[in-house]
Design goal:
By secondary structure, the protein is mainly beta. Helix content is about 5%, strand content about 55%. It contains two helices and twelve strands. Strands 1, 2, 3, 4, 5, 6, 7, 8, 9, 10, 11 and 12 form a twelve-stranded antiparallel β-sheet that branches. The two termini are about 20 Å apart.
């Protein structure tokens, strides 16, 4: 795995990244410990009820440091815009609403895939990893 550089986030002015999987960790009483589960259907209630409106299912990075983002919620899609910052392996999405989403430990898996962690308002919502693929 290689470091995700700013140039990987956009090409020819922009690049669109679609969420492929969200790994979450929860305590399972029956199994007596923490269990990691991958969510891959971002329209179902498991995703929209817990993460809808918080986790971007699509991010478009522009070379001028602007971004567009799409969220899936129980009430339908929500779009957002803002500016992005990349410091080492840490991406920060500063939305025009004033909210910031942090994507720490962003790592390039292949030229068209990256994974990262997640933080919003100082918490990670039990998210272990987000996996994105360029479309």
């Amino acid at each position: 795995m290689a470091e995700l550089r700013s140039i990987h986030l956009h090409q020819n002015g922009k690049k669109v990244w679609r969420l492929q999987a969200l790994s979450t960790e929860m305590y399972d009483v029956d199994k007596g410990g923490m269990v990691i589960t991958d969510l891959v259907d971002f329209n179902q209630a498991d995703f929209t009820g817990r993460f809808g409106g918080y986790v971007p299912v699509q991010i478009t990075f522009y070379d001028n440091r602007n971004f567009d983002v799409l969220y899936h919620t129980a009430d339908g899609p929500i779009e957002g815009t803002g500016r992005w910052i990349k410091n080492a392996d840490h991406i920060v999405l500063q939305q025009n609403t004033g909210d910031e989403i942090e994507l720490p430990a962003a790592t390039l898996d292949a030229e068209d895939q990256f994974h990262c962690q997640y933080a919003y308002l100082g918490g990670n919502m039990d998210i272990q990893q987000l996996k994105y693929r360029a479309i």
